[in-house]
Amino acid sequence: MLAIGPEVLRGEIAAARGERDKAIAHVEKAVRLEDALVYTEPSEWHYPPRHLLGALLLEAGRAAEAETVYWEDLRRNRDNGWALFGLVQALKAQNKTDAAALAEARFKKAWERADITLTASRFGRK
User: Fold this and answer.
1) Coil, helix or strand for 83?
2) Rg of the chain over CA atoms, in angstroms?
3) In this structure, how many other beta carbons lie within 10 angstroms of the beta carbon of residue 85?
4) Among 2, 8, 47, 56, which is most exposed with the fewest C-beta within 10 angstroms?
5) How far apart are CA 98 and CA 94, in angstroms?
6) What's the sign of the alpha-carbon dihedral 33, 26, 5, 44?
7) What is the residue-wise DSSP string for 91-106?
8) pLDDT band for position 80 (cuts 50, 70, 90)
9) 52 closest CA partner among 106, 12, 3, 107
10) Which of 67, 65, 77, 66 is nearest to 35 (CA)?
11) Spatial distance between the Cα atoms of 8 and 45, rounded to a whole number of angstroms
């Protein structure tokens, strides 16, 4: 479990340096490590690296890959607002307007009581 954090951190540092491919590789590793965790309630790792991975893929212009990442997160965490927000961005980037409208409606319902406005599927970035 503790191996996830350093990979996320390495990914964030690489992203801050503009090293997108390196950042994505580190966060992909963090996702694999999280997927290997034994299911517990609550989860042993609370920061979902898929949200970061999706955001990094979008920043790199890889919207189709980001879409896949967000759908997988939603398969695991139905109606997660962060993943829905990223999915909307990924669909819009691919001009999938009908699908984006459906995802946006799901996001609005999931996020209707939230007290923050999202700008990305990763916390702390615009």
Assistant:
1) helix
2) 14
3) 24
4) 2
5) 11
6) negative
7) HHHTT-HHHHHHHHHH
8) very high
9) 12
10) 77
11) 12
Identity of residue 99: A
Quote the pTM value: 0.93
Rounded to the nearest 5°, which phi and psi values hold at 84? -65, -40
Q: Which domains does the chain have, with CATH numbers?
A: 4-111 (1.25.40.10)
Would you state the pLDDT for residue 104? 97
Q: State which amino acid sits at residue 36.
A: A
Confidence check: pLDDT of 126 > 80: no
Distances (CA, A) of 107 to 7, 100, 111: 28, 10, 6
Contact 89, 58 (CB under 8 A): yes
C-alpha 124 chain-centroid distance: 13
Integer Cα distance of 27 and 74 in angstroms: 18
